[in-house]
Amino acid sequence: MTLPPRNPPATETVWNAAVKVLLGNDAGDWTRPAPQLYPHQWSWDSAFCAIGWAHVDLRRAMREQQRLFAAQWRTGKIPYIVYDDTASESYFPDSARWGCRVSPDAPDGPPTGGLCQPPVHALALSRIWDLARPDPEQRGAARRYLRRIYPAVLAWHRYLATVRDPEGSGLVTVYHPWESGCDNSPRWDTVLNSFQIGDLPPYVRRDTRFVEAAQRPSDRDYRRYLWLLELMKRRHYDESLIARHHPFKVKDVFFSSIFVAANEALLELCDVVDAPAADRELVAGWAQRGQAGVAASVDPDLGLSLDYDVRAGAWLRSRTFAGLAPLIAGYHTATLIAQLDSAAFLGNPGLHGPLLASTSPLDDAFEPRNYWRGPTWPVINWLFWRALRRAGDHGRAQRLRAAALDLADSDGFFEYYDPRTGEPLGSPDQSWSAAVTLDWLAAPDA
Ligand code: 9WN
Questions:
Q1: Residue 236 predicted with pLDDT over 80
Q2: Which residues line ligand 1 (CB under 6 A)?
Q3: What is the pLDDT of residues 196-219, one digit of tens each?
Q4: Do the beta carbons of residue 294 and residue 256 sit within 8 Å?
Q5: How much distance in Å is there from the Cα of 110 to the middle of ligand 1?
Q6: Measured in whole angstroms, how far is the alpha carbon of residue 230 from the centre of its chain?
Q7: Which of 142, 270, 396, 438 would be a feasible disulfide site paired with 55, CB 3.0-4.6 Å?
Q8: Is residue 112 helix, strand or coil?
Q9: What is the set of active-site residues?
Q10: Which distant-in-sequence residues (6+ apart) come within 8 Å of 365 by Cβ?
């Protein structure tokens, strides 16, 4: 089933081009994030892809996350990568480097990485439900699908709310920049510089064969990423040991805000699948605790929320889009909106369009062409667009959407863009950039 774009004809070309990207990266029941750079199934990419597929083929959208959830660890963790071992030459670290089978909690089946990523999955499920609901046949299929996947999603959220928040703070702990999804963001600089690294087994980076090195994390960053991997592997991915001894333990406010939104989405799905009252109470409790944790992370001087370094017992000061993350958790406050509109973010006169850059152009760490240190990422803007819309802030949501569609129209679906010029950067034909564009195109207005 291919739905026509709701705003034809101007958007028809973009629509068709976005569908073509998804079809080109389709691996059958899951989607490669990019044709060359990312040949495996990534966790949050897959959830965004499901949203895109939902506009093209609902049945395909319902299959998208199944392989991912089938790779769930016994702890409830959804791994950040499920490997396609036929493509093991193309990406590093490969599954052998992770060696996850040392853990009794690792799943059987295709090998996985040892980390997780932001929990956007329930947002994708609720989008599938919204789109399936009007048609009786699709609604029945979607309800059956949601009933099947619901226990695994609940277990995933339980893992995040417990194993990853033993303090009950409402904020989720991440053990690696790759878990944040925003790898070389300046948010992690202080923590990455706070520990020594030991000897690493030899390795060859593959990413810089496909994308200019200046647009990717540095070699120095990679050594740290790989050192953290080695430490986790040495501890057999035992999270009680990792929680005690790991040098990178950060309460990630962006991850935690997505978790609040995901719990709200899961609560709505509890009704669809007739979940027991006890589940609803649990999920509502996680959402409430998350909201309180996220609200408490706002720094009054900066007017932005901060991540927290658990090991050092210190808030991490930086000015990135993550400082506005409480918007995603439902906090549409005057302080955050003033920041959003200010020259630190959307109101910056040097921007190509009113889109959030990954790092504020006013921050010393801002590097407009370097990955998470400055470029604009469509999926991040989609999360904020969704949040503004849910808060009834249709004017701001509409402006964000229009700017994002302009970028896709003129440059196609890249991984990220220079926020000053709109120049496309990173990988071309990035699946999640195409997927969120389909959702933007199908949105009635804002
Ligand atoms: C490491 C796939 C992934 C995204 C991440 C993004 C990037 C990987 C990498 O690509 O990370 O996980 O090799 O750079 O940072 O958010 O999920 O698109």
A1: yes
A2: 33, 38, 42, 44-45, 178, 181, 183, 207
A3: 999 999 999 999 999 999 999 999
A4: yes
A5: 19
A6: 24
A7: 438
A8: strand
A9: 183, 415
A10: 186, 189, 318, 359, 373
Nearest-CA residue for atom 5 of ligand 1? 181
Q: How far apart are the CA of 224 and the centre of ligand 1, in A?
A: 16
Residue 439 in this model has a pLDDT that exceeds 70:
yes
pLDDT of residue 85: 86
Q: Which atom of ligand 1 is nearest to the CA of 207?
A: 13
Note the pLDDT of residue 446: 46
The percentage of the chain sitting over the pLDDT mark of 90, rounded to a whole number, equals: 95
Q: Ligand 1 centre from 183 Cα, in Å?
A: 7
Task: Establish whether the linkage from the previous residue to 9 is cis, with ω within 30° of 0.
Answer: yes
pLDDT at 445: 65
> Among the residues of 200-313, which ranges form H helices?
219-234, 239-245, 253-272, 277-296
- DSSP letter for each residue of 330-354: T---HHHHHHHHSTTTTT-TT-SSS
Average predicted confidence (pLDDT) for the chain: 96
Contact 256, 293 (CB under 8 A): yes
3-state secondary structure at position 248: coil
* Residue 320 β-bridge partners: 359
DSSP reduced 3-state for 164: coil
Residue closest by Cα to atom 12 of ligand 1: 178
Supply 416's token pair. Answer: 């990220």
CA-closest candidate to residue 341, choices 384, 281, 296: 384
**Residue 10 above 90 pLDDT?**
no
